[in-house]
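User: Can you fold this complex?
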Amino acid sequence: MANLSANFIGIKSPNPFWLASAPPTDKKYNVERAFEAGWGGVVWKTLGSEGPPVVNVNGPRYGAIWGADRRLLGLNNIELITDRPLEVNLREIKEVKRKWRDRAMVISLMVPCDEDSWKDILHRIEDTEADGVELNFGCPHGMAERGMGSAVGQVPEYIEMVTRWVKKHSRMPCIVKLTPNITDVRKPAEAAKRGGADAVSLINTINSITSVNLDDFSPEPMIDGKGTHGGYCGPAVKPIAMNMVAEIARSAETRGLPISGIGGITTWRDAAEFMALGAGNVQVCTAVMNYGFKIVQEMISGLSQYLDEKQIGLPDLVGRAVPNVTDWQYLNLNYVAKAHINQDDCIKCGRCYAACEDTSHQAISMSADRVFEVMDDECVACNLCVNVCPVDNCITMVPLSKGTVDPRTGTVVGDYANWTTHPNNPSVAAE
Amino acid sequence: MTNSPLTPGIVPGRLPAAAYAANFNDHTPPLDRHEARVAADRCYFCHDAPCITACPTSIDIPLFIRQIATGTPEAAAKTIWDQNILGGMCARVCPTETLCEEACVREAAEGKPVEIGLLQRFATDTAMAKGLHPFERAAPTGKRVAVVGAGPAGLACAHRLALHGHDVVVLERLPKAGGLNEYGIASYKATGGFAQAEVEWLLQIGGIEIRNGVELGRDVTLAALQAEYDAVFLGIGLAGVNALHAAGEDLAGVSNAVDFIAALRQTDNLSSLPIGRDVVVIGGGMTAVDAAVQSKLLGAENVTIVYRRGQEKMSASGYEQDHAVKAGVRIIHNAAPVRVLGKGHAEAVEFAYTEDTPEGLKLRPETFTLKADQVFKAIGQTLTGAPDALPVAGGKLAGPSGKVWVGGDCAAGGEDLTVTAVAEGRDAAEAIHAQLMGH
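Assistant: Here's the predicted assembly.
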């Protein structure tokens, strides 16, 4: 069984699976049970300044979208940071950390955007023996209206400033948690790096309205006839999160900045994908809210099996896919593939035909007895037929070998060549 | 209770009173809302879907399933009824395993088709429970059409004609409308008086008058109908029953399966129905299965279906055969009755094994005898009472003739199924409409 122990910016944990700062990490009771289940670490639910705690709504905090069998695909929430007294949280964090020395204990923080507030909270947590801090610049609801959370995360200068304060007033490793509710995630990541952050974590939740009540005409979740945007998470956000992780991992300015990957991670495979895109570890929330802490057992066994089968160690996985994330302009325009339908596997549903005929390139023929075949002289290899086919691996993309003639274009498949040198590229023609 | 399954002879009340309700309950319970959503999600929404082709009424199955999946079973019901106004009954009695569900690509993929029949029932039940009848009659045309027979073909024809604004008079020889839906379907397939409820629902279209107790040839002639009406549709079914042509056929205890099934459907006290201890059903179709299974459910100790050819030739589907076997019915293939034995009353049936030869079915010398205090004949129905003027082909009415149209089991073409009858009645109505309106 592969060794899954991880060292993320000096914070050690028996596996790279942490629970993200969220309701599951709100209190000692939960966190201890998570550790018993096998989680490698937690980021404790965000603490605020000393004083009267925040209050939450007393109606529904979560909204969701589902698949047909009520499979939860996406969740959003309007819960704020911890609503328990600061001293209770601090006492419990210390108790848990002392009892679970081998697990990572990171404290999430969100206080007003002034140096004294940050200095004060950092001072207050010093005694907990926690392993690090995570700056919550991500939550898009509620606290953002008060100038915290994503309100900070959307202004790179603030990120840099606050990160600098934190590094000035604390010796703890510092992770900056980023909001996806921006146009270019590299800017806040660069700001965090300039401010001295040891790592970034992303993504926090995405501004969202999950559904509208068509009887009461209110967004869900509905509080007394009204709703507000919440933070979207769960499997639905994973593709967005992975792109943002990859953008930071491959950017010249932020390359090498450790990343804690977050966003819809539900299985070991999701985790492995994030790590291949550069995440040094991963954080999970929605999946445990959906299935409970026990899922970590599958994540541990699955990642371990995968690493064993690949005969690589965990550090070898991290960032392994990053060199293959590129810009469109560098994609090989001389790579030519054709869809191929395996007639033995085909169940004759005709979905490929409908998709290609109605919405793509009219490259699939249909016979009277429902035999569906790809017309190579029309197929542009768009992959839509593969995506809509209900049978796994029935339709595959078969690359043409070099030297063969593409029946669609009549040209010979040649060596690698991309848009930067293509004759149709105006910037090439101009030279 | 004095009788039990072991009591000799044909006696009522073989079971405890409570057993009847349980035995004759809905044999395929309906889907609830969540089950329907999950079942609907399995539909691939195939292009030019094979299930539509397989449906004799060509219901747009992928569309109605998608309408269920998106929370609008009422719209789904409309999609079904547009093609098949008896979609509620067809959802219950169609042999879907040999029609839409056999054609379903998921049957090919994994041997588990989308549950089209159950989904159709969910949609139509939901809409009917809401009292919806989403059709409105066209302006009256002043044309009058006589429909003979209030079975599936006649009702489908009548509804479509009424929809187009024609006035329809339906003549029915039996006391209730519905045809085989009312008199010929196993009780556990159409529980809760569904057949009559569906007829009442169908009549909401307006413009249809049903006259019960009127029989063609006895009470009215075809010539008179042709004289009085602008068009005539005959959906008179197959009222005759084939004989065994075996000695002892007239002994007491030997009767027609269709009469037994009808009696079951019409009784309001199942425990009062007499049933044999040893029941033998002769035949290989749906009627044989329905009679045999219900004999068992009434408390018969031993029930055997005997079919003269091999299993592959049985017109009861594999699903129906399994249903019978699971109910405890024994099925014997390749045997034909030679004589019914007994003194005044059936006591046993002697069978000879058969052999399918190029010259036809032949009796072999080997014989066996089954104890039988009750024998049901289920070897097919025949056309009777058809007006002499109409052309007959292969024992069935050949097709439209002058202003007379035909459809359902009495008409040539298609299988003898409710759904086929509906399609033929509907299509005849469209043809009549086109002719009456000069289209």
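Residues 418-436 of chain B form the longest helix (19 residues). The two ends of chain B are 65 Å apart (CA to CA).
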